[in-house]
Amino acid sequence: MKKHLFLMLLFFVLVFSCDDNLCIFPKEPELPNKEFPIGSTESYYYVDLTAEINNEPRDNDYDYYFDVVGLPSGMDYFINYRTISLEGTPEESGIFEITIYLEVEGPFRNDFDDNPDVLCNYGTSKTYTLIIE
User: In sequence order, which ranges of 1-133 are alpha helices (DSSP H)?
Assistant: First the structure.
């Protein structure tokens, strides 16, 4: 019984005494794990990824901002809300390390002032391998 009381007391001290948010179940932006298909310099290439916010059922209440580094010439990226598309006809072959950066802002909804949820992190990045033959 004493052990349970001690653990409860410790939990409340940690949660309510810190200025920083304690993220037991972290809410943060996330890019999916995905293996890109192999492409060719002779063919149009297309792949898309949809971002989300981990442990947040209201993903659509945020604005998503992407940046991409490492695309081969002939390719570009396009954003449609939470989805980023990498597409184009690559002009060079090789193995490319593509890094996608994601930042989110929000949440934006009518009752935000009544329920001021915050995220543990507002940004993330992930590096993917793109092979062009």
Answer: 2-17
